[in-house]
Amino acid sequence: MPTESTTGPAPRRRGHSPKRKAVLDAATAEFLAHGFAGTSMDRIAEAARVSKRTVYDHFPGKDALFQAIADEILARISDMPEHVYAPERPLEAQLLAIGHTFAETITDAEFMDLSRVVIARFIQRPSMAENTLKAHRRLRRDMIALLAAGKKDGRLSLRSPEMAAAQLCGLIKELAFWPQLTAGQEPLSTRARRAAVRSAVGLFLDHYGVRDA
Amino acid sequence: MPTESTTGPAPRRRGHSPKRKAVLDAATAEFLAHGFAGTSMDRIAEAARVSKRTVYDHFPGKDALFQAIADEILARISDMPEHVYAPERPLEAQLLAIGHTFAETITDAEFMDLSRVVIARFIQRPSMAENTLKAHRRLRRDMIALLAAGKKDGRLSLRSPEMAAAQLCGLIKELAFWPQLTAGQEPLSTRARRAAVRSAVGLFLDHYGVRDA
DNA sequence: GCTCGACTACACTGCACAGTGTAGTATGGC
DNA sequence: GCCATACTACACTGTGCAGTGTAGTCGAGC
């Protein structure tokens, strides 16, 4: 064991070189296209036109590389407006707004690819999958808060804001997300996506909305 | 190449012995618990208290073994009543009936485990995932037909039966299926499941139902 | 001109796993 | 007794892949 070789088992590079970006880009493409298990470090190195050693010089291992990519994509996608209940605005408009944001987020091509990969990777350890794809958790929280506020304000007649939020999301996801993810269906056009949200909000308000308000 | 050894490259056993069942049982448990990639043929053999050779004597390979198991579980689960539109019965009751069947099917523990594994395995090739889990496709067809009939009968006011069916399913799945599958949530109690279906049908009819009928 | 950090090329270890080949054992029917 | 069937034990091939070790190249700054 020649342990005195250089500096021991620490990462050998730290700077943010152009090669690092090449690796990240190549790895993103490979992971999103072929999944975690279906992508080898050799392929990534080859695609990045970089030696395998360089990959390991910038990232400690496959998992770390994948995590870095997932984090980066999620950060890019999670850059969305907050949705806070506004008593003076019509409820329908507010529900449409958050619904559209939700639908846009989950139909984003990169989010879908990432979902595919993360779900394939972590579905055996479900907690991690939900944890990693927290982008839409944040929106779900906003939605629950909005529904709770609308209820308190007497404009919605519902028991559980959590359940109602799930229903609203389910209405949208079953049209705009799951068919594309698990059945290879083409992504919804903007037009169709917006129609799906309008329909979902229509169903929602016909049931939970209070007549006069 | 000693090709004259026994009989060439054909499967060596054909009978339905008790060992075959042991292999199937063990493989079912292993696959459902650890997924396709997470299960090795050695583990299956060990769990079945059988030599590895015996596994290969009954099944040509890992894929075939998995397919046999998936088919068997799906056959068991797909054994469900047909739901055909009955003009004389109240629509609500009919929607509740098919909704409850749907919810029962997808909340079945074995169906969920199988879904997990199949989704993890085939989500990169989405067509296969939908194809394998056809159990709920059959119900979806029934549901679409039922909605189309209800529309023709003037009891439902909707454009697309396909879209409406998706919405009804989405309302149920987002409460009773996906949280359990991807977030490790406890399965819904029978009581909660039935409440979810009633709520979904309520939302559905408040929007799509025709007032008088 | 030398050094140092980033990088390459490539050989190599170690592992897990699918699938095979084969010699040998136990059992029941003839 | 004999033979076939079902099965075991186990060694073995081949492959794909994560991760490492190392000698050497190249360019920038001193």
Properties at a glance:
homodimer; 213 residues; mainly alpha; Arc Repressor Mutant, subunit A; Tetracycline Repressor, domain 2; 2 domains; 11 helices; 0% strand; disordered N terminus; DNA-binding
Short description:
2 copies of one chain form a homodimer. With 213 residues, chain A is an all-alpha fold.
- Poorly predicted runs of chain A are 1-9
Total strands of chain A: the figure is 0
* Strand and helix order of chain A: HHHHHHHHHHH
Category from helices, strands and their pairing of chain A: mainly alpha
Roughly how much helix do the residues of chain A carry, as a percent range? 55-70%
- Sheet-strand content of chain A, in percent, reads under 5%
CATH topology of the largest domain in chain A: Tetracycline Repressor, domain 2
CATH superfamily of the largest domain in chain A: Tetracycline Repressor, domain 2
What is the architecture of the largest domain in chain A at the second tier of CATH?
Orthogonal Bundle
Regarding quaternary structure, what we see is homodimer
> What is the radius of gyration of chain A?
22 Å
Task: Please describe the biggest sheet of chain A, giving its number of strands, its sense, and whether it closes into a barrel.
Answer: none
Form type of chain A: elongated
How many structural domains of chain A?
A: 2
Number of helices of chain A: 11
Greatest chain-chain interface? A-B, 38 and 38 residues
Q: What is the CATH class name of the largest domain in chain A? A: Mainly Alpha
How confident is the prediction overall: mean pLDDT of chain A? Answer: 91
